[in-house]
Amino acid sequence: MNVVDRARSLILRPWLEWKVIDAEPQTVQGLYTHYVMVLAAIPAICGFIGFSLVGVGEFGATYRVPMAAGVAHMVVSYMMSLGCVYVLALVIDALAPGFGGEKNLIQALKVSAFTPTPLWLAGVFSIIPSLWIIGALLSIYSLYLLYVGLPILMKTPEDKAIACVAVVIMAAIVLVVVVKVVIDLTLPATIRGF
């Protein structure tokens, strides 16, 4: 299945698509090269365009991030996105047995690779930085994908699935905050605010 069809199916019919994903044989390399690396590039590239070419500003004033800082931000964002997928997979794999699920790194990687699909697609709104709120709201759908996919792929019993999803969401939030701070360090202080 190609990237566009997979993304569309995950968004429009997640229950059915997670069952298809569950049955598919995958490798770490295959998941990264055919899906993660492609979609994770969207917010990184669009963020570069928004910060360095369009500019950030309020009340009519616009500030463009210097090209070198924009490129650094893009590269660090992209690399951190790739790393986050793997770290989240390790967290999911470690937590699953504690909630009655199966320990299986490839299944955990499938969950962490396909869950951020809406977040990555919503990254297109980074082209116009003032539209970030729309992208943020659309990316919340990723939480629903996690809620649906985690029990299917990790075989978590129904009575423990919500608790497992909640713990994974908390771990993901901590991971995202740490990554966001690291990524923001590539931007000038006038943009990042600290």
If you had to describe this structure to a student in words, what would you say it looks like?
By secondary structure, the protein is mainly α. It has one domain (3-189). The chain contains eleven helices and no strands. The chain has helices at residues 3-12, 14-23, 28-39, 41-54, 67-95, 105-114, 117-122, 132-139, 141-154, 158-184, 189-192. Helix 1 (3-12) packs across helix 2 (14-23) and helix 5 (67-95) packs across helix 6 (105-114). The radius of gyration is 17 Å and the shape is elongated.
Number of E-type strands: 0
Which strand-content bin applies to the residues? under 5%
Average predicted local confidence, pLDDT: 92
**Dominant shape:** elongated
Tell me the structural class: mainly alpha
- Succession of helices and strands: HHHHHHHHHHH
**Total domain modules:** 1
- Cα-based radius of gyration, to the nearest Å: 17 Å
- Estimated helix fraction: over 70%
Query: How far apart, in Å, are the first and last alpha carbons?
Result: 43 Å
Count of helix runs: 11
Feature tags:
194 residues; mainly alpha; 74% helix; 0% strand
